[in-house]
Design brief:
Elements (H helix, E strand, L loop, with lengths): L2 H24 L9 H5 L13 E4 L3 E4 L4 H7 L11 H10 L5 H13 L5 H9 L6 H11 L5 H7 L7 H28 L13 H9 L4 H13 L8 H11 L4 H12 L7 H16 L6 H13 L17 H13 L4 H20 L10 H10 L8 H22 L12 H10 L1
Antiparallel strand pairs: 1-2
Helix pairs in contact: 4-19, 5-9, 6-7, 7-9, 7-13, 8-9, 9-10, 9-19, 10-11, 11-16, 11-19, 12-13, 12-19, 13-19, 14-18, 15-17, 16-18
The chain binds carboxymethyldethia coenzyme *A (CMX).
Length: about 425
């Protein structure tokens, strides 16, 4: 058994026993209440699932196994000469709740390289897609095409015991994570660089190899990818992509089906697609105002006009957060350090000043602050990755780390098929009037 898998097995067995006892002895303890407002507002705040890998606080933002992003930047192993954390380290932490050593992270980089090979039919399927298909559509289809490699599905068909679900899930998760950068880069090069593909460089870490296969050799871009793929990895279990993965996987559909579903959810403009919408919004703003150096007054005008047209300001607001997103701040800190003289980045910073009071004045927006998607596009444009249709795919590559670590836990802990109760509006009217 590999060292990560062995650690995971030992830890998950201990928690499994604890949860079994808790369920038996305390199963009827109430942990929350649900009111009609929550149900009508997309189940906001309803505690209904267990997610081991991260937890979201409305004020402090995301904590991965209790660690904030600034703490992770200090504690997770780095590449020599880089201050950004390695996403391999975050995956290790999320999976086994321990900060890994440099040696453990190097082992994981090597392990993913060994598992990165893509079956030929996946490339064939991608080649059969029109170039007009959105990169997220291609990404979802490519992931689903990998389902032929599912160890879980194969073993299930052979009569696998419940006790072994976690093992097959771990193997599939490791394999899928290993393959995603190659698939994503293939889609990017196919769509935007005449299909001139770049072979992986097996000496590089997971994020740097992704940058290399995309065609970016700039060391700062590789640093950016390490940070980017770390901070987008997980946002507790209730966000749409994570919850979709959790739901699908609870039916014992394997991680390929589950993750493809999660990526379909990430492709929505209120979720991950917001990162492409933000840079589109900035390009439109520049076009509309006629300068890439607009004043704050001109930006405010454009923001108000957008709202008056019945549209949202992409990159602002959040279902849970009530302060600026620490993932936005982490990218701002990166840009302040590595980028001088970018009009797009400056507009992002000006929007950070201009948008919140305008949204707050509307009187209905629960969180007027920027979220993770408000910053990323301007930084990618700075390094030359201007094809914004691809941005959500990068988000998706990162999101695999959190949701697949969490899914491995779900199978180890034997969580049940998800099946909440729905009611009709007729039922609600009757119930509320009686109350
Ligand atoms: N611009 C304009 N109006 C906004 C707004 C924004 N950025 N954010 C919220 N509102 C509006 C909502 O549309 C809603 O209006 P109606 O009552 O007329 O329908 C009202 O304010 C209340 O919404 P809320 O309770 O503040 O927000 P929700 O929890 O319902 O939705 C979110 C959260 C993210 C969907 C919403 O803030 C939004 O649409 N933001 C823009 C899209 C975006 O950036 N999404 C990315 C989120 C991060 C991620 O998942 O990647």
């Amino acid at each position: 058994m590999d060292p990560l898998k062995k650690k995971f097995f030992e830890k998950s067995q201990t928690l499994l026993k604890e949860l079994k006892t808790l369920r038996k002895e305390k199963g009827d303890v109430k942990i929350g209440e649900v009111n009609l407002g929550q149900v009508l507002a997309g189940m906001r705040g309803v505690k209904s699932m267990v997610w081991e890998t991260s937890e979201l606080d409305p004020i402090e933002g995301i904590k991965f196994r209790g660690y904030s992003i600034p703490q992770l930047r200090e504690l997770l192993p780095h590449k020599k000469g880089d201050r950004q954390p390695l996403p391999e380290g975050l995956f290790w932490l999320m999976l086994v709740d321990e900060i890994p050593t440099q040696e453990q992270v190097d082992w994981l980089s090597d392990e993913w390289e060994k598992r990165a090979e893509i079956p030929a039919h996946t490339f064939d399927i991608l080649e059969s897609m029109p170039l007009t298909a959105h990169p997220m559509t291609q990404f979802c289809i490519a992931i689903l095409s990998l389902q032929t490699e599912s160890i879980f599905a194969k073993k299930y068909a052979e009569g696998m015991s419940k006790d072994d679900y976690w093992d097959a899930s771990y193997e599939d998760s490791m394999n899928l994570i290993a393959k995603l950068p190659r698939i994503a880069a293939y889609i990017y090069r196919r769509n935007f660089h005449d299909g001139k593909h770049i072979e992986p460089d097996l000496t590089l870490d997971w994020a740097a190899n992704f940058a290399h296969m995309l065609g970016f050799e700039n060391q700062d871009f590789k640093r950016l990818m390490r940070l980017y793929l770390t901070i987008h990895a997980d946002h507790e279990g209730g966000n749409a992509s994570a919850h979709t993965v959790h739901l699908i996987n609870s039916t014992l559909s394997d991680v390929y089906y589950s993750f493809a579903g999660g990526m379909s959810s990430l492709a929505g403009p209120l979720h991950g697609l917001a990162n492409q919408e933000v840079i589109k919004f900035i390009f439109e703003l520049i076009e509309d105002i006629g300068t890439s150096k607009p004043t704050k007054e001109q930006i405010a005008e454009f923001v108000k006009k957008t709202i008056a047209e019945g549209k949202v300001i992409p990159g602002y607001g959040h279902a849970v957060l009530r302060e600026p997103d620490p993932r936005f701040i982490a990218q701002k800190v990166f840009a302040e350090h590595y980028i001088t003289d970018s009009d797009h980045v400056q507009i992002v910073w000006d929007l950070f000043e201009v948008v919140p009071p305008i949204l707050a004045d509307l009187g209905k927006v629960a969180n007027p602050w920027p979220n993770v998607d408000a910053h990323s596009g301007a930084i990618l444009v700075h390094y030359g990755l201007k094809e914004y249709q691809f941005y959500t795919v990068i988000f998706g590559v990162s999101r695999a780390l959190g949701v697949l670590a969490a899914t491995t836990w779900s199978r180890a802990l034997g969580f049940s098929l998800e099946r909440p109760k729905s009611v009709t509006s007729e039922w609600i009217k009757k119930f509320v009037n009686k109350a």
